[in-house]
Amino acid sequence: MSKIFCLSFLIIALAVGCNGYCYSNQFECDSGYCISSSYRCDGDYDCSDRSDESGCTTYSYCYSYQYECDSGQCISDSGVCDGYDDCYDGSDEDGCADAAAAVGLAIGLSVFFCVLFCVIIPIAICVLIYCCVAGPLHYAMASRPTTVNTVTTAPATGATVVTANTVQQQQVKAAYPPPAYPQPMQQYPPVQPPLYPVQ
Fold first, then answer.
1. Which of 46, 115, 173, 175 lies at 20 to 30 Å from 90 by C-alpha?
2. For position 30, what pLDDT does the model report?
3. Which residues contact 22 (CB under 8 A, 6 or more apart)?
4. Under a CB-based contact definition with an 8 Å cutoff, are residues 26 and 17 in contact?
5. Contacting residues for 62 by C-beta, under 8 A, at least 6 apart
6. Is residue 166, in this structure, part of any structural domain at all?
7. Which helix (H) or strand (E) holds 72?
8. Domain total of the chain
9. β-pairing, 160-166 with 147-153?
10. What is the reported pTM?
11. What is d(CA 51, CA 106) in angstroms, rounded to the nearest whole number?
């Protein structure tokens, strides 16, 4: 039992600082109040008497959500380039115009590539497909005659006859209807042979 008591006393003695009030990972303010050692020289007054920032020439390592000023002071990331000098040395506002230009350029490039890859290239691919594949296919389909089935009924027998005609033939028949009565075929003069022999 005495060994356990001695061991626990040793652990407590190591954890408590020499002043007897704050743990070793804490800073004691002049008022006697204990704060985390990471708050010492961080640019924020954590002690009510501001003793945690007195005598600081360099500041402690900043957390990932903080910005480290040129002097080593840590400030909130939201204080960078906000138009106010949050760092004592004003370094949080240095180069903000360059940063704004870089952000503008990055946004401009993002929009350009988005429009290029999401709009222009797909439209170009569709046009090429139409011109190279669908265009010639459409032209070939339009230039060949289309057959249409027509149904005629013979008046005497009542039988239905289906014949295949082309659209062009139907158009010719519509433009030039057959004569009402049979006419004799016209006679053309015979074709004369050429005067010179064809080679």
1. 46
2. 92
3. 16, 28, 34
4. yes
5. 42, 68, 74
6. no
7. none
8. 3
9. antiparallel
10. 0.25
11. 44
Radius of gyration, alpha carbons of the chain? 49
Average pLDDT (67-84) is: 86
- Structural domain of residue 74, as residue ranges? 57-94
- Counting Cβ atoms within 10 Å, is residue 74 exposed (0-12), middle (13-18) or buried (19+)? buried
* pLDDT tens digit sequence for 26-35: 889 999 889 9
Cα dihedral 84, 86, 88, 93, rounded to 10, equals -60
CATH code, domain carrying 19: 4.10.400.10
DSSP 16: B
Joined tokens for residue 64: 């990932």
- Assign 44 a pLDDT band (cuts: 50, 70, 90): confident
- Using pLDDT thresholds of 50, 70 and 90, give the confidence band for residue 22: confident
Same domain, 51 and 69: no
Q: Please, which contacts does 21-25 make with residues 24 or more away whose CB atoms are closer than 8 Å?
A: none
